[in-house]
Amino acid sequence: MTEFLFSITFLVAVPFWALMILAPTWSVTEKVIASPLIVVPPALIYLVLAVANLPELWTAVSAPALGPLAEFLGTPQGTALGWAHFIAWDLFVGRWMYRRSRELGVHPLVMAPILLVTILASPIGLLLFLPVRALRARTREATIAV
What we know:
This protein has helices spanning 2-22, 27-34, 40-52, 54-62, 66-73, 76-104, 108-120, 122-145.
């Protein structure tokens, strides 16, 4: 079961990423991504894996230490759990960035590479987006003030 859940985790998030990156201005994309429920599929996979491995997970996260955490994450169960966590969180962050960029009028060609980086390494994608957001918010305020 662990291997199956691991293998479908990214697949349940791909349609949402595809909409945000490939069809960002489509009205269907706006409606779908407006719902925070898009993170539910990978989050449910995380929940199933967490419940199935609760004692090991609790030991690893209740008093985090590098050795025990690495040991747990080095197991198939820990890797699948970590993967589901990454995918759910990355999608949550990507959704926020997409929605904020649409509100601020950031061009989709600017956002597409940022969202791609977010899929692969969300902290870096977030670091790329924050200055874009700040710059766009400032230029937008200056335009409104004129």
